[in-house]
Amino acid sequence: MNIFPSNVDQIMDRLRQHYDLRVFEDGDPYRVLIRTILSQRTRDENTDRASAQLFSKYHNMEEIASSEPQDLESLIRPAGFYHVKAKRIVEVSQMLLNEFKGKVPDNMENLLELPGVGRKTANCVLVYAFQIPAIPVDVHVHRISNRLGLVNTENPHNTEMELEKTVPQDYWIELNDLMVQFGQTICHPISPLHENCPLHDLCKCYQELKTA
């Protein structure tokens, strides 16, 4: 259920004014996919370090597919859960070569067939690798969307479904990146910086705090 649907244009306009859209791995679909797998349950700086170390030694899908998971573990260790992630990265690379002719799929159905790939990861690949409109919902997007009153949901899956109804598709490609940056700099999980927030007058959470 969307609470303040009329505010979407203002919210996106202000976020655009405060943040520049970032480019990840130069848009290469395979690197975007692997980076997104590495990013699960870790911070961006850890993901960046792990991704850089991995691709400094292994330069393409074929090299990673022919490696053993333990060969990758020390390289991706900064990203955490490196035993599981190394295994998934090798399995994903092998499956892409064997079943998808070495190409990363550009659709949700096929992406979800890959080991360890859920909707958030698949949506990230669609957006950042192929510029296909989708809404990747991570902890930042889920938290911020509920605070602003764009949705009233209890889990990321429902947030994605509701945002697709609330947010015009023209904004989908930008939404994740802008909200992630906003969540990292201002709308923190604990002690958000209300005094520095460019959206405080549009925010359901802030308005409730003022009247409490």
Give your account of this protein's structure:
The structure is a single chain. This protein has helices at 8-18, 29-39, 44-57, 61-65, 69-76, 82-99, 108-111, 119-130, 139-148, 156-166, 172-185, 204-211. It has 212 residues and is mostly helical. The protein folds into two domains: 5-21 and 136-211, Helix-hairpin-Helix base-excision DNA repair enzymes (C-terminal) (Endonuclease Iii, domain 2), CATH 1.10.1670; 25-130, Orthogonal Bundle (Endonuclease III, domain 1), CATH 1.10.340.30. Helix 5 (69-76) crosses helix 6 (82-99). The chain is elongated, with a radius of gyration of 18 Å. The protein starts with 7 loop residues before the first helix and ends with a helix.
What secondary-structure arrangement, pairings included, does this model have?
Layout: H1 8-18, H2 29-39, H3 44-57, H4 61-65, H5 69-76, H6 82-99, H7 108-111, H8 119-130, H9 139-148, H10 156-166, H11 172-185, H12 204-211
